[in-house]
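Q: I'm writing up a methods section and want to include an example of the input and output format. Could you take the sequence below and give the corresponding predicted structure tokens, formatted cleanly so I can copy it straight into the document?
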Amino acid sequence: MSEIIEVGVDGAVRTVTLNRPEKRNALNSEMLTELHSAFAGEPSAEERVAVIRANGPVFCAGLDLREREEGLPGGEVSIEQMLDAIQHWPLPVVAVVQGDAIAGGNELALHCDFVVASIDARFGMSLAQIGLAPSWFLAKKLLEVAGPVATREILLLGDRIPAWRMHEWGVIARVANAEELEEAAEAVIDRLSKNAPLSLRAMKALIVREMDFRDHIPHEDVDELVAAARNSNDAKEGIRALFERRPPAFVGE
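A: Here is the clean output for your methods example:
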């Protein structure tokens, strides 16, 4: 692992920390690969829970759009593959969200089993505002945890949603004042670390397996719509406008 992803195991708890604060912890190809690696293997016999944290004021700003804008080749691991590794890790995963979790950062948090967030944090999927669209895999997670009403609010409007509202909707498990975030997170982590490991494995497998059924719904036509949006001139304009800090001029092509 490099310094942009820090991994440590202390007894029952594995901690994985995003450490690219100067880039708002935006997920570049290297981070996707290393996050995938952090959850690719079997946990040790002593482990009971993993915790995802982030250094700096922002939890994760999503995929690093600079790579896309600059035409850099993609890495070997996609965001979907990385999130799938976290979702299928055999023990519970807790996200401690101290700041904004946007787009891919929102998905990173929601693919964990528990989200404990600062009341000051905001969540959201701003893709529609820059001409992009989520893959089937990413949208599926929103429907699982948020339901259709909140998913429409999150995706179609694309605005940032305060943590208290996400908690009110039942999308995230806990919210706490910033100064009480660690105490709230430790309460969840401590409880998980003391629970029976075979029970934790069985229960997580049950939950994940019962949610996986949506993968088998035919969606090739939806994939084509998503690809058309991602490869459109509107998407190029949206990303340029984001970097230039101006409103985008979408034309629908």
